[in-house]
Structures are given as structure tokens and as C-alpha cells.
Amino acid sequence: MSKTDLKNLTLPALEHFLQGQGKERFRATQIFKWIYQHDARTFEEMTNISKDLRAELAATAFISALVPEAVEKGSDGTCKYLFNLGDGHAVESVLIPIEGRNTLCISSQVGCAMACGFCLTGTFKLTRNLTTAEIVNQIMAVRQDVREGGEEIRNIVMMGMGEPMHNLDNVIPAIQIMIDGNGLQLSNRRVTVSTCGLVPEMERLGREIPNVNLAVSLNATTDELRNRIMPVNRKYPLKELLRACREFPLPGRRKVTFEYVMLGGINDSLEDAKRLLRLISDIPNKVNLIPFNEHEGCDFKAPTQAAIDTFHSYLIDRHVTVITRDSRGSDISAACGQLKGRLQK
Ligand code: SAH
């Protein structure tokens, strides 16, 4: 029988696992805290649990971890972590320190099946889904590093490699562990799931974890262009995608983040800005403009500064909350759409 990696289990799933072995339920909370709050890697460390139970657990379960294989620091403070998954594959996570608020961008898949025309990760196709353990272990490995500097990770964005909505079976438990008060203790308002627009999965996420933040990579304002640069649009066109955004259960005064990769001469005109505003105006929104980060083998070009300024001002003048992302980490290929899960030699 193969051993169970306890980091694949949410707290209720761990309770179930222990009950299946005839153990008391409250043990699950103790073990969960050891794992997520004390970073325990072995059962030996769990001193409030009897020696016998520790030995029994060690026979049926284990606690995985990821150790960064390489860490690259960019000139702007951005840190890219490369994690070897032990099966020949690797993923990256990017730590973005913004005014003392550390944001960690994590991956959900090795490669990606969505094949967006401008994204480097997409050119590698989907190799496999990350497990729940591999998703939370990215956070725990970087957290250890951050804590050595006396800081904490405040925000998690699922904007790294992969399409999180394409791996919900593992992403949902991972988020449950992130926001569990006995787990990683992150506030659900500090967890953001970003999607290219898989509509049924957006609905499922909204049903199962109604309080996380939603980011949608819109990137185009007509179906014609979106079909061309994001194949997912042929299945779920703009109208359906925007309906799913409108219906997404965001609590209180929270907003959907619309990400918009600006491709020079393709989607960066004033007309595009006007159409964008019309599309999202009946949804509580904020906009993230991401100037395209060029990469080898891709013909799209970055927008001019003038195009960025015009687009940005048009929206700001109409009271839209807009952030134009600087190309953080681009000197270490850690910027949006530049992650490929390999060492850059
Ligand atoms: N699959 C999810 C999560 C990835 S997020 C999603 O699509 O939302 C990565 C973000 O970077 C997306 O908004 C994507 O549109 C953007 N992106 C991809 N390639 C890029 C590039 N070369 N330059 C700038 N942004 C890019």
C-alpha cells in the first residue's frame, strides 16, 4: 500500500483519514497545526501525540515538502523560485514584494493546455496537474524564506504557470488549506484565482469557495480577436464569460479584476479601451493592464508607452480603478507569461 501524503488532505479529509484508522477526530486538528503552523516534516516532531500513534502514522502516511532548486533575485526585488517536483518536471513561483506587502504568485500546472497565443507557458502544452500538496508546498517553501527576513506572505495569486480552473480538483482543497484557521491561516480576501475564462469551472469555484477573489484574463474586447489569441473563447465567448463574472459570488464591496495584456498594435487602441469599459461597466471591476512581455519565438510586440498612457488615462478618467503593471521581474524572466519551469542558463 502506498503512503498518503497528508498535504493532499484538507482538515475534514484528514479527519476522515484518521477515523478510517480508528483514531479520534481531534487528532486531525493537532496534526494539521503541526504541518501548517509548525512546518513539521516528520511525525517524530509531534510531541503532543503518543509515540504509538506517531509510529502508526509513519507507517501509513508522510508529509511532503518542496525545496527550491534555484532562487533568482531580480533588480526590483522580485524573487523567482524554481521547484523540482522529483519526476523530472519543475514549476516556478514568484515572490513580489510590494511596499512590504509580499505577494506570492504560484503555479497550478506543469505547462498549460489553454494555448493562448501570447503566453510562453502555453507553448509547452499541459504536462500534468499539480497535486494539492505541490500547490501548498510552494507557499510553505517561500514562506520559510520570507520569515527568515522577519516578514510574512500576505497575498496569494494563482497567476503562475497553468490554468487553475483546469485543475480545480486539486486547487479547491489547496485553497481550503490556505484559508483554514488551523492551516495556513490566510484570509480568503487575500487569495486570488486567475482564469482565462473556463465558465463552468468559475461557477463551480463560486459554489464551493464563494469568498475568494476572481481575476479574469480578458485581453480582448471582441470575440473575433479573443478567438484568435485565446482559443478558450471559441468555447466560452465574451457574453458567457461576462455573465459568469457578473454572477460570481463576491462578498460585499469586492471587485472582479480584469487583466488585460496589451499587445502592441493588436488590442491597445483607444477604441479597445472604450469597448473594454462598455463590456465591464455593469460588473464591479478593477483593471490590471499588463504591457506584453516579449519572448523569443512569439511575434507580438510590447505596446508603446503612449498607447499605454492613452488607454490607462481613458479608464482612469471614467473612474475605473486601473493599475498598469510594471514588468516586474522581467530581468529574471519572472514576469507575466515568462514562466517555463526551467533553469535559465
Ligand atoms: N491561466 C490563468 C493564470 C495565468 S495568469 C489566466 O489566464 O489568468 C498569467 C497572466 O499573464 C494572464 O493574465 C495572462 O494573460 C498574462 N500573460 C501571459 N503571457 C503574457 C506575456 N507574454 N506578457 C504579459 N502578460 C502575459
Q: How do the strands and helices of this protein lay out in sequence?
A:
Layout: E1 4-5, H1 11-20, H2 26-37, H3 51-60, E2 61-62, E3 68-73, E4 79-84, E5 90-98, E6 101-105, E7 109-111, E8 126-129, H4 132-148, E9 153-158, H5 168-179, E10 191-195, H6 199-208, E11 213-217, H7 223-229, H8 232-235, H9 238-247, E12 256-262, H10 270-280, E13 285-291, H11 305-317, E14 322-324
Parallel strand pairs: 1-2, 6-9, 9-10, 10-11, 11-12, 12-13, 13-14
Antiparallel strand pairs: 3-4, 4-5, 5-6, 7-8
Search tags:
binds S-adenosyl-L-homocysteine, alpha/beta, TIM Barrel, 2 domains, elongated, 14 strands, two-stranded parallel ribbon, 345 residues, ten-stranded mixed beta sheet, DNA polymerase, domain 1
